[in-house]
Amino acid sequence: MSRPQCPRCSRPTSHCLCPLIPALDSRTRVLILQHPSEVKHALNTARLAALGLINAELVVGEVFTDLAVLLEQPGHQACLLFPGELAQPLSEYAAAREGAPLLLVVPDGTWRKASKLLHLNPALAALPRVTLPQGASSRYRLRKAPMAGALSTIEAIVQALEIIEAPAGFADLLRPFEVLIEGQIAAMGEETFRRNHGSAS
């Protein structure tokens, strides 16, 4: 028999994260396009990000037939947070817009699944691409990063917003994420965590 879940954060009611989820506002509009394979993942960081940001929307799918509508945000310049040869540093892209609000589009999934979203949605792949500074360190200790500097979706969004909207801070968005990580580590046991994921520092 499955445990009752919180309908908002999708966690078991005994481990509900809602009291930790903030309600942060931003000039930047955040659109998260989530691959369906991520929906039931125990560490659904995209959902936490969407719940904690007032000006954010989470859409699940592979082919987004209404993408043109989703991207139509009056006064906002849409850009895609995804690496690539033509990707600009986000700080430079935002500075060139001279403070105009951005629509930050963030694909959520493994690198393979996120790349598939771009392949299946040409209008998405055609957006200007932006990247975060290299050298970031992820706190997502339960999933092996595909490459150095890879971040979870919620970490990438926080870093992006702090670049675009400096000096505003968005670290509170990470509080439920960190509690979730610690809870998962506690559930598996310290010894198992160290054996499978390295040091528990």
From TrEMBL:
Pfam families hit by this protein: DTW
EC number annotated for this UniProt entry: 2.5.1.25
GO biological process: tRNA processing
Sorted UniProt keywords: S-adenosyl-L-methionine, Transferase, tRNA processing
UniProt family annotation: Belongs to the TDD superfamily. DTWD2 family.
Protein name stated in the entry: tRNA-uridine aminocarboxypropyltransferase
Coiled coil: none
GO terms of molecular function: tRNA-uridine aminocarboxypropyltransferase activity
Domain DTW: from-to ranges: 2-189
